[in-house]
Amino acid sequence: MNTITAKELEEKLMNKEVLNIIDVREDVEVAMGIIPGAKHIPLGDLPYSLEELDKDKHYYMVCQSGGRSSSACEFLLEEGFDVTNMNGGMMAWQGEIE
Q: What is the pTM of this model?
């Protein structure tokens, strides 16, 4: 599974790269802040949200600490998606949040 650090992902955002970030945390967690531009799909809803994703795009998966996003990556890889897990999750994120 591909991984990226929070700092590396932040640098991509700062360089104005077009990124597809999926935050798989629960609603109450996302209410405390989300990476700007990230799409919120709770992990439990992911199997029912595949039509919202495009297999031709690359997705960066984010959760609170990296565990749930790792599970999301495994699931999406099995479904044929191109994904990268952000190590450390939002606990490692130092960048802006909205």
A: 0.97
